[in-house]
Each structure stands twice: as C-alpha cells, then as structure tokens.
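Below is how a single chain appears once it has passed through the pipeline. First comes the sequence as given, then the structure the pipeline wrote out for it. We keep one example in the README because the format questions we get most often are answered faster by looking than by reading.
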Amino acid sequence: MFAIEMEDVSYSINGREILRDINLRVPVGELLAVIGPNGGGKTTLLKLITGQIKPVRGTVRVLGMRPEDARPRLGYLPQRSHFKTDFPIDVLQTVLIGAYRKFEAPTDDDREKALRALEMVGMLEYMDRKIGELSGGELQRVLLARALVREPDLLLLDEPTASVDPAFRGSFYRIIDELRGEMTTVIVSHDIGTVARHVDSVACLNHRLFVHGTIEEAIKCIDEAYGCPVDLIAHGIPHRVLEEHGDE
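Resulting structure:
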C-alpha cells in the first residue's frame, strides 16, 4: 500500500504553473525528503497532500482516500513563518490544538497524548509557559509535538529545521530516527547534507519531479533540479567531487 499517490498532478495560479505532471508514490512507512530551490513548489506539494488546495489536473490519494478525508490521520508542521507567537496561549494548549475535533473539547486521553508528545520532544517542563516566551528552537519543538499529538499515520514537515540553532537540528533528527517505522514521514528541506543521513529516499522538485529514489540517485540530478551547478558537501554518504568552475 502507498501512503501517498500522485498521478499526473499539475497545479497553477492565475495561469502560472507551480507544479507540472507530478507522479509520486510513497510506500507506507517510508521516510522521504523533498529537496529543491525556493519557489520550486515544495510547500504547494504538501498543501495538495493535506487537501488545502486541489490540483487543476491529475489525482491525489492519501492513505487510500481523498486528501480531505485523510486529514484526521495526518500530522502537519508548516513553515514557522505561518505561526504567530503573540497569541496568549501556553505550550500545552498549543499542542492540544493538534488533537482538535470539531465541536468537541479535548479529552483526558488527548491531554495524556499531548504530555507524551511534549516529553518526546524534550519540552514537558515548559508545558505551562507562554509560547511567546520560547526561543525559536523551543517553539519548533512544541509545533512538532502538536503535529505528533494525534499519533498520525502520515507526518508532513515543511522546512522543520530552518532558522533554528544547530542544537535543535541535531535533536530534531534524533526524534525523527526514533519515529522511523511508526509512521510515513515526508520532510521538505534544503539541508540535504544532514537530512540524507536519516531518510530512505529523496525527491528533487523544481516545478517538475526529477527523481524519487535513493540519496545517491538524487545527487546525480541535483544540478538539473536546481537549474544551475550545485556544489554539495556531505557527510555519511558518497561524497560528490566538486565541479571545475573555470578560470573566472
């Protein structure tokens, strides 16, 4: 079974093509990284998977159903720029938002799951603190807990380590390693040198999907995906010999 199936999917806004002819299958339990340049359609891809937007052409199936029907089984961590920290709410309340069910108050079970999620990301002792008092890395841990609180079958993470300190990046990937096998995970990231050590496969996306395979396969197509020569320095995977840059 596939957690995500996209067939001949295209998406455009006001005649401007964002995604073109995307074909993607993500097996249940896989940990996939989606890399590519800014403006290449990575966030749009996640919005199609969550059902926030619909393709202009093609079909999207998530966990064997329409994306909007699969939402209760998804965990989603959007880019931090979409989250306001001036709202008077504490850490535990923020995580409980992830367990939201229409017209229903959080249950004792929801609270227990929220506490477990906070413990998993190392933020349990901050449960009563206001989110506006948190550092960038601390807030990102809380938002990750919010995505995990409903114990999703599919976890979607949009640039989860952008603009945070190196200590958080290391602890974040340790959490992801611990979750391996418990859920299907898709990580949108520019940090290929780090993410490559933790994922099963990589997709290169720049309006079109260039590859969906191993990190070694992805490295071969990065120049094509970015549309320019790219020098990659990586650790723990086969190293790429840097291109000659000429005499300029």
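The longest strand covers residues 2-13.

See the next section for the split statistics.
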